[in-house]
Specification:
Rossmann fold, alpha/beta, globular, 3-stranded antiparallel beta sheet, 243 residues, 6-stranded mixed beta sheet
Length: 243
């Protein structure tokens, strides 16, 4: 969990701390995740944390990386960037590029990795949505289908928008994306795919943005250049927990 709000050079943001805190609670308490949270992380903090996960995780682990903060992108090389709190406004030299992210994730042993990015221009991370949204159970029982999806090496990304700016705030103490993400997570009590969560939250985010006169379209698909083979990230709620 990465929540960046108090920037040294960029305009401060209002919601990433609370977004990271609340998503941490839901993933930990409702889904049994072991969560590490970085608040106001520098470039070194982020890359060091990813490198540590690379050392520790096994093929039986599933990894979810959540980022909330400023984002930027370079039209010339089609690179997206997460802006660390020590990031400059006039140079991307010390930003965390999409290549930095995929270089780390592509060599991790975890079978399934999901990146959830609530930042401007985060849609640049998505390779394609076509292969992710047309999936069906192929006639298998649901439990068998989810087990099959989870067993294949997958690298997916769920972004709060396309290659444009997104809203910071709009839902009380949360961004409109974080609020929809939390609602979609909290209401489920049986295993489900990340694809299903996306299909649940995307219309809610789009409607909320329209209420502010903005266009914001969450994206979901394979993470570019990260070694995606197939399958999907499967969430498994803990028994007896709701809301």
């Amino acid at each position: 969990m990465i929540g960046n709000a108090n920037y040294r050079s960029w305009e401060p943001l209002g919601t990433p701390h609370e977004d990271a805190r609340r998503v941490t609670e839901v993933l930990r308490d409702h889904y049994g995740f072991k969560v590490r949270t970085l608040i106001d992380a520098t470039r070194s903090d982020i890359l060091r944390a990813l490198a540590k996960l690379r050392e520790e995780l096994t093929e039986d682990d599933h990894l979810l990386v959540y980022y909330s903060g400023h984002g930027s992108w370079d039209k010339a090389n089609l690179q997206g960037y997460w802006v660390p709190v020590d990031g400059d406004t006039d140079s991307v030299a010390n930003h965390v590029s999409s290549n930095d992210i995929t270089d780390q994730l592509s060599v991790m042993r975890s079978r399934q990795i999901l990146v959830v990015a609530d930042a401007c221009f985060s849609g640049v991370l998505v390779r394609s949505v076509a292969d992710s949204l047309d999936a069906g159970s192929a006639g298998l029982p649901r439990d068998a289908w989810l087990a099959q999806q989870s067993a294949v090496t997958g690298r997916k990304v769920l972004s709060s928008g396309n290659i444009r700016e997104v809203l910071d705030g709009g839902a009380g103490r949360h961004s409109i994306f974080a609020a929809a993400f939390l609602r979609a997570l909290k209401k489920r009590d049986a295993p489900f795919e990340a694809r299903e969560l996306y299909q649940d939250l995307a219309p809610a985010v789009e409607r909320a943005a329209q209420g502010f006169g903005e266009q914001q379209e969450p994206q979901f698909g394979a993470l570019r250049h990260a070694g995606h083979v197939g399958g999907d990230f499967v969430y498994v709620p803990s028994a007896g927990l709701r809301g």
